[in-house]
Specification:
single chain; 22 helices
C-alpha cells in the first residue's frame, strides 16, 4: 500500500514538476512583493471591527450582544482571521497574515486560470500581472474583502474550467463541481455582491458541462448553504439573515441629482389654458427622457471612475475574450466571457431601491479588483496565443529559406527549455528589484511597518497597564482609539473575566473635548482636560493623519509618569 502511494506521488511529480516549480516560485515572489509593499494598519474602522469581532470568538461574548453590521457578517474573511489568531495569537503583526495569504493564493489561481486558457506561459504572464497590480498593495495589507473575494472567485472559475475539460470518473467531476460551489459560497460570505457571479457560473456549467443534473445539484447545494446560514442567524443572533444585517447597517449607493422632481413645473402650469398645458406636458415628458438618459449615464459611471490599472485590462478584455471565444472557439474562454459579461451587466444595472434610486453596488473603484484574475488570464492567453502564431510563422519562413538538419531542431528545443526558467527568474528578479528600489530603505532598514506596529503595541499596552490615558480629540467614530483598543492593546489587559468588552464600553468622554481610553477612566478628576494640557508627556494624544494613527509622544511614556500626577490615580 505504501509503495503504491509512493509510486503514485512520484508519478504525479514527474507529470507536474514544472507546475510545482512555477507555483512555488510565484508563492515566494508574492510573499516578497507583499512584504515590500505592505501598508500600515488603517484606522478606517471596517477591517478593525472584523479583527476585534474575531477576537471575541475566543471569549464568552454572545453574538446577540454584539452591535452587528455588514462587515461583521463577512465570515468568508473572518474565518481566516480566526485561523491566523488561533495559530499565531492576537498580536498586532498577526493582522497582516490573512490578507497576505489571500493575495498570494489569488496569484496562484490567476496562474492556473491563465494555464487553462492559454498554457503555462499565459498563466505566468497573468500571475505576474496580477501580482504587480497597484491596488493589490492595499488589498494585500488590510482585512478588507478585495483580496479574499478575488481569490474565491478565481478559485471557483478555475475549478469550473477544470470540471468542463475533465473526462475522468463521474465522482471526481462531482468533486470538482463541489469545489466550485465551495469557493462560490465563500465568495458570497466574503461579500454579498459576489452572488452576481453565480448566474454566469451556473449557466457556463449548464451550457458547456454536459451533466445538467449535476448543475442542478450545485444550485440546490448553494440554496441549501444559504438556508443553513439563515438558520444560524436566527438561532445565534437577533437577525433573521445576513441580508437583514446589511439592510440595517448599509444603505448602498445613492444616485443623487439624477432623477429630478418636477413639482416646480407642475405648479407653474396650474390655471394655464389648454395650449400652455400641452406645451408644459411636452416639456415634462422631455425632461423625463433626459432624466432617464442621465440615470443611464450615472449607472455607467463605475467604468469612468475605475483605476487606470484596472480600466486598461477591462477594456482590453472586451476584445480578447471575444477573440478567444468567438473566433478561436475555445470553450474555457466562452465560459469566462459569459461569467464576466453577465456579472458586469448585473452589477451595472442592479438597483436596490427605486425612490430615491440606489444602486446595489456603489461605484467604488476597488470593487472591480475581484474581476482582475479573470481579466488578466484572458488577456494573457490571447496575446501569448498571438505570439505563438507569430513564432510559428517565422519558423516556417526560416525553414523555407534554409534547410535545417535534425540537430538544429534538437538544439532549438534545448535552448527554449533552458530559456524559459531563466526568463522567469529574470522577470521575478526585475519585479523584486523594482519594489526594493521604491520601498527597500523603509522596509528593511526601518522594518516598516512591522517594527512600528510591534513598537506601537508595546507602548500603548505599557501606558494602559500603568493607568495612563490614551486620548483622541472628540469625534463621532473615534477611529484612532478604536484601532488602539481593537488591535494594539493585548487581550489580557482589556478582558473582563471571561468576556472581551466592546469598544463602546471601554471609552469615556472626560472634559468635553477628548475621548479617553484608560484602565480606570472614572478615577480621573473633573478637571481631567486641564491636567492633560499641563502634562501631555504622561499621556498619548492620538490623531488621524490620512488613514493612519499618529501619537504624541512617539516613544514610551516616562517611567516617572503616574496615574494622578497629571493623568489619573492607579
Amino acid at each position: 500500500m505504501q509503495r503504491a502511494l509512493m509510486a503514485n506521488a512520484l508519478g504525479v511529480f514527474k507529470r507536474h514538476w514544472q507546475d510545482l516549480v512555477i507555483v512555488t516560485a510565484l508563492i515566494l515572489l508574492s510573499l516578497w512583493v507583499r512584504r515590500l509593499t505592505l501598508w500600515d494598519i488603517e484606522a478606517g474602522g471596517d477591517a478593525i471591527r472584523k479583527w476585534f469581532f474575531v477576537k471575541q470568538w475566543s471569549f464568552a461574548n454572545s453574538f446577540k450582544e454584539i452591535p452587528w453590521n455588514h462587515h461583521l457578517a463577512r465570515f468568508g474573511i473572518n474565518f481566516w482571521a480566526y485561523v491566523a489568531q488561533k495559530i499565531w495569537g492576537t498580536g498586532a503583526p498577526v493582522y497582516f497574515i490573512a490578507p497576505v495569504a489571500a493575495a498570494t493564493l489569488g496569484v496562484v489561481f490567476c496562474y492556473k486560470l491563465g494555464q487553462e486558457l492559454g498554457g503555462r506561459l499565459a498563466g505566468l504572464v497573468a500571475a505576474l500581472w496580477f501580482l504587480t497590480l497597484e491596488p493589490m498593495e492595499r488589498a494585500g495589507s488590510q482585512l478588507l474583502p478585495e483580496a479574499f473575494e478575488a481569490t474565491y472567485v478565481a478559485g471557483a472559475v478555475y475549478f469550473l474550467l477544470w470540471y468542463l475539460r475533465y473526462q475522468g470518473p463521474l465522482r471526481w467531476r462531482r468533486v470538482l463541481l463541489a469545489l466550485v460551489g465551495l469557493f462560490l459560497f465563500g465568495a458570497y460570505l466574503a461579500k454579498v455582491s459576489n452572488l452576481l457571479f453565480a448566474p454566469g457560473i451556473l449557466l457556463a456549467a449548464w451550457f458547456f458541462g454536459g451533466a445538467r443534473r449535476d448543475v442542478l445539484a450545485l444550485a440546490a447545494a448553494l440554496v441549501g448553504c444559504f438556508l443553513l446560514e439563515t438558520l444560524w442567524y436566527n438561532i445565534f443572533t437577533e437577525y433573521s439573515s445576513q441580508f437583514a444585517v446589511i439592510s440595517e447597517s448599509h444603505r448602498g449607493g445613492t444616485i443623487r441629482g439624477v432623477v429630478r422632481t418636477i413639482h416646480k413645473a407642475t405648479t407653474s402650469v396650474q390655471g394655464a389654458d389648454s395650449v400652455t398645458d400641452a406645451v408644459a406636458k411636452s416639456a415634462r415628458q422631455a425632461e423625463k427622457e433626459l432624466d432617464l438618459m442621465a440615470l443611464l449615464w450615472k449607472l455607467l459611471e463605475r467604468y469612468q471612475v475605475a483605476w487606470e490599472s484596472i480600466k486598461f485590462p477591462l477594456f482590453m478584455f472586451l476584445g480578447t475574450s471575444l477573440g478567444l471565444a468567438v473566433f478561436a472557439q475555445q470553450t474555457p474562454a466562452k465560459a469566462v466571457a459569459l461569467i464576466v459579461f453577465l456579472q458586469l451587466i448585473l452589477t451595472t444595472f442592479a438597483i436596490r431601491q427605486i425612490s430615491p434610486i440606489k444602486v446595489w453596488l456603489s461605484n467604488e473603484p476597488r470593487y472591480m479588483i475581484v474581476l482582475c484574475p479573470l481579466l488578466m488570464a484572458t488577456n494573457s492567453a490571447f496575446f501569448v496565443g498571438l505570439a505563438r502564431r507569430g513564432v510559428k510563422r517565422i519558423a516556417l519562413w526560416v525553414r523555407g529559406r534554409w534547410s535545417l538538419g535534425p540537430a538544429a531542431g534538437r538544439w532549438a528545443r534545448v535552448v527554449v527549455i533552458a530559456l524559459a526558467p531563466l526568463c522567469a527568474v529574470v522577470s521575478a528578479a526585475l519585479i523584486a528589484n523594482h519594489y526594493y528600489q521604491a520601498n527597500g530603505a523603509r522596509t528593511f532598514r526601518k522594518g516598516f511597518p512591522l517594527r512600528g506596529v510591534e513598537a506601537a503595541q508595546y507602548h500603548y499596552s505599557n501606558a494602559y497597564v500603568r493607568g495612563l490615558p490614551i486620548v483622541e480629540k472628540r469625534s463621532k467614530e473615534k477611529k484612532a482609539l478604536r484601532l488602539i483598543y481593537s488591535v494594539y492593546l493585548e487581550d489580557r489587559l482589556i478582558r473582563r473575566g471571561d468576556r472581551l468588552p466592546n469598544f463602546e464600553d471601554a471609552v469615556a468622554r472626560l472634559g468635553g473635548s477628548y475621548d479617553w481610553l484608560s484602565k480606570a477612566p472614572a478615577t480621573y478628576a473633573a478637571d481631567a482636560e486641564a491636567k492633560l494640557k499641563r502634562d501631555r508627556s504622561c499621556a498619548y494624544v492620538t490623531h488621524l493623519r490620512g488613514r493612519y494613527v499618529n501619537r504624541t509622544p512617539t516613544k514610551k511614556l516616562a517611567p516617572d509618569c503616574r496615574a494622578g500626577s497629571g493623568a489619573a490615580e492607579e
